[in-house]
Amino acid sequence: MTEFRNRSAYHEFFIEEKYEAGMVLYGTEVKSMREGKLSFADSFCMFFKSELWVRNLHIAEYRFGTTNNHLAVHDRKLLLNRRELKKLENKLKDKGYTIIPLRIFLSEKGLFKMEIGLARGKKLYDKRESIKEKDTQREIKRFLK
Predict the structure, then answer these.
(1) Torsions phi, psi of 47, nearest 5?
(2) Span 68-96, mean pLDDT?
(3) Which of 12, 59, 118, 132 would be 17's cystine partner, CB 3.0–4.6 Å?
(4) Closest Cα partner for 31 from 60, 71, 53, 3?
(5) Measured between alpha carbons, how far is 84 from 90 in angstroms, rounded to an integer?
């Protein structure tokens, strides 16, 4: 599997901007991700000493890993340009914004990249409205076939 999507992100948040970031990974993490052992549950991004980190991203331990195997859940550093980091850090100071992982994919060079989104949380009525829109789009597609 070469692409993983955070399906609940679009249901829970309004995505305002998207960025593509590199990830600092161990070898066994890459092997486990190639097997499809990844979960976005409760993951988010945060700043620590002007660096962007992703927390609670679960990459299962590699089954053939020995004593050099990685921890399943630990903070992973994200790589962005300094200008993008400053812009995101300034936006986070505004009330209601957060940074969440949207998808992880394999680039053309064979590296895993993460697409992150600057997001604002949805209220309950916004979520209901999103569900209604999806249902109407599904009905329209059904009638057009």
Answers:
(1) -95, 140
(2) 86
(3) 118
(4) 60
(5) 10
